[in-house]
Amino acid sequence: MHLRKLGVNGPHVSELGLGCMSMSGMYGPTDRHESIATIHAALEAGITLLDTGDFYGMGHNEMLIGEALKEIPRDRFLVSVKFGAMRDPAGNWGSYDARPAAVKNFLAYTLQRLGLDHIDIYRPARLDPAVPIEETIGAIAEMVQAGYVRHIGLSEVGPETIRRAASVHPISDLQIEYSLISRGIEDAILPVCRELGIGITAYGVLARGLISGHWQGATGPGDFRVHSPRFQEGNVERNLALVEALRDIAHRKGTTVAQLAIAWVAAQGDDIIPLVGARRRDRLSEAVGALDFNLTPDDLTLIEQAVPRDAAAGERYNSKQMAVLDSEK
């Protein structure tokens, strides 16, 4: 697997990253043994970037990753961690807390759960409207100085916030949703990142499974897609019609819909690292297979004709979540 540099100031990482969120219940029930085996398979395949959040499963995801990495040499992987999302004992979501004191508190618990002495990339999960981004980034910069963090990232923020954050400390990358059916970053966010030398770690490259070619329905109350607009009746049928158009192209190229969608994101620039949310080894193997072929200019044209920009039905989050996304303002 080839490496790509994550922005001008970031580390070299594998050209594909593993997003571990789905291993902690966000998409329904999970299998601990299979999750750990999938992390090991990713490392064996050459994936070096593992992405998590301290609020995934209220710490479960970090402990799972820590268990999986216990016997793995530290120079074989990098861990990217998001922080700041508040949850209650019932698992309900609350606000965000990115105060400097909270940053250091969250980091201390993250290091303990992962069993590591430093985090490779640390980032606020969202913009805290009550805390200037300069204060949050300044607190992480202190942790860089102290050796607990190597690089600082951002997540789901817009151009103005990106500029303000970068004025305090170099930013390695912006983590943000980007896929064939979520292309909003192309207007203003991606140009600003490229101007400032900030990489992109793209999550949702398969739109939470919607454009994977495998969608069979949400799995129940533990699966947040039950409430996601793009998966609602009336929207999901229109979105799956786009998948069938992609399937025709994939068939002609001898690949799968998921591989085509991942390869499209990877083809948008060497500064973009797709994060795949595989929680099973077979799905991981399929995702890694997206790197085995190159999309020609003609292929890219056909794909974008099959799935025109803004063709998706429904927003990527519900209205309450969309209202607090700095990246959507």
From TrEMBL:
GO terms for cellular component: cytoplasm. Keywords: Oxidoreductase. Pfam families: Aldo_ket_red. GO terms for molecular function: oxidoreductase activity. InterPro entries: AKR (IPR020471), Aldo-Keto_reductase (IPR050791), NAD(P)_OxRdtase_dom_sf (IPR036812), NADP_OxRdtase_dom (IPR023210). Gene3D superfamilies: NADP-dependent oxidoreductase domain (3.20.20.100). Residues 15-306 form the NADP-dependent oxidoreductase domain. This is Aldo/keto reductase. It comes from Acetobacter cerevisiae. The lineage of its organism: Bacteria, Pseudomonadati, Pseudomonadota, Alphaproteobacteria, Acetobacterales.
